[in-house]
Amino acid sequence: MKFLLALASSILLVSAVTAQTENWDTYMVRMGGKPASVLVDMGLLSSAPDKLLPYLLVTGPQANRPNKITGFPDTAEIARMENILDLTSAFLSGVTAKKLAGTLMYNGERVNYYYVKDTIAVRNALHRMYNTHYPTWKYTLKIKQEPAWQTYRTFLYPDSMAVAWMSTNKAVLQLLQQGDEPDVPRSIKHTIYFTADSSRKSFVTAAQQLHYKIEKIYDAPTVAFPYELVVSRFTPLVMDSLMAQESELRTAAKPLKAYYKGWDASRK
Known about the structure:
Elements: E1 2-3, H1 9-17, E2 24-31, E3 34-41, E4 55-61, H2 75-93, E5 98-106, E6 109-116, H3 122-133, E7 139-145, H4 150-156, H5 160-177, E8 186-194, H6 197-209, E9 213-219, E10 227-235, H7 239-253, E11 259-264
Antiparallel strand pairs: 1-2, 2-3, 3-5, 4-6, 4-7, 5-6, 8-10, 8-11, 9-10
């Protein structure tokens, strides 16, 4: 999965409302040239795999009218697809022990990823459910043995880039909830810490070449990274711009063994 530099807040907010228990979180990626929304139970990683649930079940409805460009259905159809997935979970509860690991919305589909105990009655029960209750909907139904839970650990669970996206997205949403206006340009400040002043000086040169303004140079010799630097760029509060800035600053900091702390977009 490739990282998607975009803020699809309407999709993410719909997803977030559906996950009220356990440690669920959501992020966006790009797969095969199209955007995808992933909702995943982050809390499963510490106990994965569960040896009692060795089979992976992937199932869910296909949208009737997805957007031709993004592949996402509209809000009303997303809600309808969620109802179908809720009934899917209810049917599964009657035939096998299960654990919902995540949900993927991509290319007109919204599918759940379950790990289940056995598959003896699962396939027939779900075919019967779809054909009886949703005969006009196309659907996906795939089952395979996967005792190591590799799909959850390497596909659903976010990689480092997705984790960075999740963190930035939460910070942006928090600012928006506080009444901030994302289209208004402001100084986006980034803080980086160094173990040596020579490394900081090298970073200053790189940052200036990337058209960042040097805001602050500060020494605090009592901390593990005693040399602080704050740089800024004047831009709107837009996800793709924020993530691009963070990515290029992290890239510049890595060979210098510097610590990128994060950004601040408050207009004080």
